[in-house]
Design a protein that fits this description.
This protein is α+β, with helices and mostly antiparallel strands. Helices cover 16% and strands 39% of the residues.
Length: 220
């Protein structure tokens, strides 16, 4: 009888333990810890990711993200690469400790997000499936929306890891027409949340798909 009971309980335990990630756009006030010059640029509709009932992250994107692109590029569809490196893309809040894609632990708190491309040289080669990231920066160190030169940006983000490496939010391609906000499984325990955001190249307006890593780490 005991053996039968133990087999009956195992599937139930697996269902309970399985994370249930969801993503939704919700009206959420931008945290006061974000500097005013940045806060005024952010959409008050945040991308909210939950694991069951627990909020994993809240992301406030800029109401309109500036890009550098020709009229033809805008017409044919944009990618992350049209965002100038060092651009402030938004802000993020982790209500609890968060582990980034490089297995670095970040304390609960509010941070800014700035776009950067991973160099394909040296010890960076092959360390991620895609080279596009947002570097996570301490909100107290990011005071305005001006572009930050890449070396300086790396220094600011690396303060979260005692100067060893910048904290990263890995971006995955999301160039399809589906504008649904949802969580996708990329395999190996990696989950991403998708959302479309307005971008502007001068007077030209378009939408750019984002897919941000919300769970999972790189495999050695």
């Amino acid at each position: 009888m005991q053996i039968v009971l133990s087999f009956a309980l195992c599937p139930l335990f697996a269902v309970v333990a399985e994370p249930k990630f969801t993503a939704k756009v919700e009206k959420v006030e931008v945290p006061a810890k974000v500097a005013e010059p940045i806060r005024k640029l952010l959409d008050t509709n945040a991308l909210v990711v939950r694991d069951g009932d627990t909020v994993v992250m809240r992301v406030w994107f800029r109401t309109e993200i500036p890009v550098k692109a020709t009229e033809e590029q805008v017409k044919n569809g944009l990618t992350y690469r049209e965002i100038p490196e060092g651009t402030c893309v938004g802000a993020i809040e982790f209500p609890a400790k968060f582990t980034d894609y490089r297995k670095q632990e970040l304390a609960a708190g509010v941070y800014t997000l700035r776009f950067a491309v991973q160099p394909d040289i040296g010890d960076h080669t092959g360390t991620s499936p895609h080279p596009d990231f947002c570097l996570i920066c301490p909100a107290a160190e990011d005071k305005d929306d001006e572009l930050i030169e890449k070396k300086k940006l790396i220094e600011i983000s690396s303060k979260l890891n005692e100067g060893r490496h910048p904290a990263v939010l890995l971006l995955w391609p999301n160039n399809g027409r589906d504008a649904t906000v949802k969580v996708l499984d990329k395999g190996n325990g990696v989950l991403v949340a998708t959302v479309k955001r307005p971008v502007a190249a001068g007077e030209a307006k378009a939408m750019l798909g984002f897919a941000v890593t919300v769970a999972g780490v790189r495999k050695e």
